[in-house]
Design goal:
Number of domains: 1
Strand content: 25-35%
Distance between the termini: 12 Å
Radius of gyration: 16 Å
Order of helices and strands: EHEEHEHEEEEHEEEH
Helix content: 10-25%
CATH topology: Rossmann fold
Number of helices: 5
């Protein structure tokens, strides 16, 4: 499998994503935001950061970068696409996943480790995850997931919720909600389950040197599901 990590002006987690994938012996290339060629990549990642300085609205300008035409076409063909943090915001702006990401309810930037409970039983990213909770870092100011009631019902009915914020035992509580997201939602998939968005950073918990490899377990699930 060949991975492509898109680099926008202001991306700052692109190399983190590259390093995590290379730790798993995967072929990875960086794709510049002005490119019109995905270089034959099978799986595209939109990394975290502050694309275009987060001016106007998070992800709103990056959504119109030249390469997004190819990224959207790739997703519409059924190709795999994942957005992490700012990448999730870009996916939402491009209407590739349902919902929007609003300012944290605390109105503060939050940077800490949190716990995630895998939810969807048939989405590529979560179907094989067995631990009740995964310790993953977050770092965002606009991560509060919001959608209208009909969209929330559809997400739940179709198993499109990937992760919810929880405590270390996998129990979803109000206290464990890191940013005020509706129903503690930390990540969602599109209806076809080939596009994945999540606010936490699994690529920042993939190297044993960091003392936490829960993120690598999540990323390895992609390989297990695709390569079987």
């Amino acid at each position: 499998m060949k991975f492509g990590v898109v680099v926008f002006p202001g991306s700052n987690c692109d190399q983190d994503a590259v390093d995590a994938l290379e730790l798993m012996d995967q072929e990875v290339v960086k794709l510049w935001h002005k490119d019109h060629d995905l270089q034959g990549c099978d799986f595209i990642i939109l990394p975290g950061g502050f694309s275009y300085g987060d001016y106007l609205r998070t992800g709103a300008i990056a959504r119109f970068s030249p390469i997004m035409n190819e990224v959207i076409a790739h997703a519409n063909r059924g190709g795999y696409l994942m957005g992490i943090c700012n990448g999730f915001q870009i996916l939402a702006e491009a209407r590739l996943v349902p919902g929007v990401l609003l300012q944290n309810s605390s109105q503060k930037y939050v940077c800490k480790n949190i716990y995630l409970k895998p939810e969807s039983i048939d989405a590529l990213l979560t179907a094989g995850l067995e631990k009740p909770a995964y310790k993953i870092p977050i770092a965002h100011g606009d991560g509060r997931y919001f959608a209208d009631a009909d969209t929330l019902k559809s997400l739940n009915d179709n198993n499109q919720v990937l992760f919810r914020y929880c405590d270390e035992n996998g129990i979803v509580t109000e206290a464990s909600n890191a940013n005020g997201s509706l129903e503690n939602i930390a990540g969602v998939a599109n209806k076809n389950k080939n596009v994945f968005g999540m606010m936490p950073h699994p690529e920042r918990a993939a190297d044993p040197v960091l003392g936490n490899t829960d993120g690598r377990i999540i990323l390895e699930q992609i390989l297990k599901a695709v390569l079987v």
